[in-house]
């Protein structure tokens, strides 16, 4: 279970005049919108189907690209707020794309109601995810629930877009009658009002959370929500005024909202574009994990007698075996390669209650594969592996230009020390890892092992197998079933 560390409370005081200026700036689009509506001569008809198609297809693509980038960051850092924002972007981008392809005279000769109202529908769906992202830190366990259901949420949005397209083209009720993008009927009006309220609440909550330490990206998210709220006001008040200047204006607010987000994300450092939106529990959290260390015994001697090219070939071959084995077969995370060494973690970025079993299984599998590789290349060094289980802290380290999320704590140090004491070709595990292994695991107690940096000796076990054995030599002990690769 993730246990958050106390956030840094040293935030600068909010300045009231900043809020006043922000409200004034946010109100300007509404002033322009109502000026157009109240002065009809300022609201001419500006019909241009090709421009409409190109602009909204491009903005839909931009929103979808932002959804992908935010989703990748959320998956990498297990951050629920950024995940929910990515889902909001995905909903908006998808329905913007549906609206664009339904532009009359481009791909379809006639106006179809489902395509006409796709923008309000998409904005309303996105508003729900935006609201959840604003309050995801308010309930213990909510963030973890969101991350566990991320695939379901993403697939639900994609399924909704596909269903909307089919429903629209098939002209099934209630999308079988003419409609307008403005609120010309009560249902669209209710949707617009709900969207206005939800976006406004989400923007206010983001201001409360980030107002004391405002950065460009959180400010852009707030501005995006405000602009989308005003776009929903445009939906509510423009009615049948399709293709008029007032109609174009609330469309332009959507374009501006996503251009601002795109610009802000582009200005951030490329490897951590959404870092300033991360939850405190993403930046620093305690987790119970298992860690695996490996290195090559005799690597220094091999390097002295081999050419640099031969050394590079060896390291490349070992890492090409280790990385997919850890990641694909056992669901671990490669934290770093350190010359001839490697550090991998399990349960550091996901929900893996069987992390000790995964780490132990990965250690055995890694030894088997690396031994086969060494058999094919006489003279190549063989590996040692150490596995340990316990609590660690994952903490954000660094700043703009270089960010790492590093595991620290005694569990990590002990894992490294166990690897240093492991026999060549063996997997040495700590007592807590041993305690969590299946009853059929075959281990050899190594007694109290003295390691560097530890005053007290450690109980350690040489892991031989996670499968049942017909016969076991004296000294072996039986430690659920063998590990199932993911």
The percentage helix is: 55-70%
- State the CATH class of the largest domain: Mainly Alpha
CATH topology term of the largest domain: Rhopdopsin 7-helix transmembrane proteins
Number of helices: 16
Order of helices and strands: EHHHHHHHHHHHEHHEEHEEHEHEEE
Largest sheet: 10 strands, mixed
Please, what is the average pLDDT? 84
Which parts are unreliable, with pLDDT below 50 for 5 consecutive residues or more? 5-13, 469-486
SSE-based structural type: alpha+beta
Q: What spatial form do the alpha-carbon principal axes imply? A: elongated
What is the number of independent domains? 2
Strand content: 15-25%
Instruction: Determine Rg (CA atoms, Å).
Output: 29 Å
Attribute tags:
486 residues, alpha+beta, Rhopdopsin 7-helix transmembrane proteins, Alpha-Beta Plaits, 10-stranded mixed beta sheet, 10 strands, elongated, disordered C terminus
Overview of the structural elements:
Helix 1 runs antiparallel to helix 10, helix 5 (118-135) packs antiparallel against helix 9 and helix 8 runs antiparallel to helix 9 (216-238). The chain has 16 helices and ten strands. Residues 5-13 and 469-486 have low confidence and may be disordered. A hairpin with an 8-residue loop joins strand 8 and strand 9. It is α+β, with helices and mostly antiparallel strands. It has helices spanning 16-38, 49-77, 80-101, 113-116, 118-135, 142-148, 150-170, 186-210, 216-238, 245-267, 280-283, 299-305, 308-330, 355-376, 410-421, 431-435, and strands at residues 3-4, 284-296, 333-338, 341-346, 383-399, 402-408, 427-430, 442-449, 458-465, 477-478. The chain has two domains: 13-278, Rhopdopsin 7-helix transmembrane proteins (Up-down Bundle), CATH 1.20.1070; 282-478, Alpha-Beta Plaits (2-Layer Sandwich), CATH 3.30.70. The radius of gyration is 29 Å and the shape is elongated. Strands 1, 2, 3, 4, 5, 6, 7, 8, 9 and 10 form a ten-stranded mixed β-sheet that branches. Helix content is 55%, strand content 15%.
């Amino acid at each position: 279970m993730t246990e958050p560390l106390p956030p840094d409370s040293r935030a600068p005081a909010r300045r009231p005049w900043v809020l006043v200026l922000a409200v004034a700036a946010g109100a300007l689009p509404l002033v322009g919108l109502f000026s157009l509506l109240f002065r009809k001569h300022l609201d001419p008809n500006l019909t241009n189907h090709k421009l409409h198609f190109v602009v909204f297809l491009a903005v839909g693509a931009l929103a979808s690209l932002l959804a992908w980038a935010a989703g990748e960051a959320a998956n990498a850092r297990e951050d629920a707020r950024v995940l929910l924002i990515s889902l909001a972007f995905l909903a908006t981008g998808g329905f913007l794309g549906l609206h664009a392809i339904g532009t009359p005279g481009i791909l379809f000769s006639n106006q179809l109601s489902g395509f006409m109202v796709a923008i309000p529908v998409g904005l309303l769906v996105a508003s729900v995810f935006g609201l959840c992202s604003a309050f995801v830190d308010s309930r213990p366990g909510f963030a973890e629930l969101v991350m566990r259901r991320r695939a379901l949420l993403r697939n639900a949005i994609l399924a909704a877009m596909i269903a909307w397209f089919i429903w629209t083209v098939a002209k099934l009720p209630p999308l079988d009658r003419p409609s307008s993008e403005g609120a010309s009927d009560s249902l669209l009006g209710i949707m617009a009002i709900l969207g206005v309220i939800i976006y406004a609440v989400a923007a206010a909550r983001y201001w409360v959370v980030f107002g004391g330490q405002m950065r460009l990206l959180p400010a852009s998210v707030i501005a995006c929500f405000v602009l989308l709220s005003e776009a929903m006001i445009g939906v509510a008040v423009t009615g049948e005024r399709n293709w008029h200047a007032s109609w174009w204006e609330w469309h332009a607010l959507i374009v501006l909202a996503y251009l601002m987000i795109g610009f802000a994300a582009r200005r951030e450092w490329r490897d951590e574009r959404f870092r300033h939106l991360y939850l405190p529990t993403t930046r620093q959290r305690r987790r119970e994990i298992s860690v695996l260390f490996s290195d090559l015994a005799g690597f220094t001697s091999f390097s002295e007698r081999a050419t640099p090219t031969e050394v590079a070939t060896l390291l490349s071959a070992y890492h090409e075996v280790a990385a997919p084995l850890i990641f694909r077969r056992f669901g671990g995370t490669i934290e770093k390669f350190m010359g001839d060494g490697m550090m991998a973690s399990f349960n550091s970025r996901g929900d893996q209650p069987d992390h000790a079993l995964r780490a132990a299984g990965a250690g055995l599998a890694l030894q088997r594969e690396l031994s086969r590789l060494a058999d094919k290349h006489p003279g190549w060094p063989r590996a040692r592996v150490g596995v340990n289980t316990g609590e660690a802290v994952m903490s954000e380290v660094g700043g703009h230009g270089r960010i790492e999320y590093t595991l620290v704590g005694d569990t990590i140090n002990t894992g490294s020390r166990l690897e240093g004491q492991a026999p060549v070709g063996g997997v040495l595990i700590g007592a807590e890892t041993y305690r969590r292994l299946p009853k059929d695991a075959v281990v050899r107690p190594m007694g109290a092992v003295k390691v560097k940096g530890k005053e007290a000796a450690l109980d350690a076990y040489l892991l031989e197998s996670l499968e049942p054995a017909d016969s076991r030599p004296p000294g072996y002990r039986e430690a659920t079933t063998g590990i199932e690769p993911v």
